């Protein structure tokens, strides 16, 4: 009997330690709009030396989002750098604090840390937790995230949000807003009726 209680307790603790959102595991997004490209531009400034862009787009399958990070000017010391989709856009003053916390539609929180082997249990916005941190000064990295959405009615939609790069000590190094770049071609030439 007692051992049964312990078994149940261990199972419960196991679930807690593994980390899963209050609303469950993240669901794969299958209906992302193919070819609609969103870009977050890092312009470089006195506040942040980072320049370059992060491109996000669904491929033909519409499943998940392909991310491409092309960045320059990350400080040589201070990494490895984490990067996340955050829950609010960068405010006018450019202060990355204004981007709030990670995009976390399943209400998982940051603890315990994301387990790369179980990406569905991670915060949707915790891209570096799921796909690996990066080091400076230059970054060229691509990956597909199955849980991020560019379909606006999905709670994991990040097309009007931001991406934030953090130092190893979690201080925010740089941030940028996603903007839609191009809509896929609708037929050929001429305005649509
Ligand atoms: C975090 O690390 C960076 C780079 O090493 C440093 O400039 C910054 O002051 C640190 N922030 C805190 C709060 O320690
Ligand atoms: C950014 O905003 C935070 C919180 O409002 C504030 O503490 C911090 O000083 C601001 N940083 C800059 C560089 O203005
Ligand atoms: Cu972050």
Automatic annotation (TrEMBL):
It is found in: Cell envelope; Secreted. Belongs to the Cu-Zn superoxide dismutase family. One of its GO terms (molecular function) is metal ion binding. Its EC number is 1.15.1.1. It is an enzyme of class 1 (oxidoreductase). Its main location: other. One of its GO terms (cellular component) is extracellular region. The keyword Secreted applies. Residues 1-17 form the signal peptide. This is superoxide dismutase. It catalyses: 2 superoxide + 2 H(+) = H2O2 + O2. Keywords: Antioxidant, Secreted, Signal. It comes from the Eukaryota. The keyword Cell wall biogenesis/degradation does not apply.
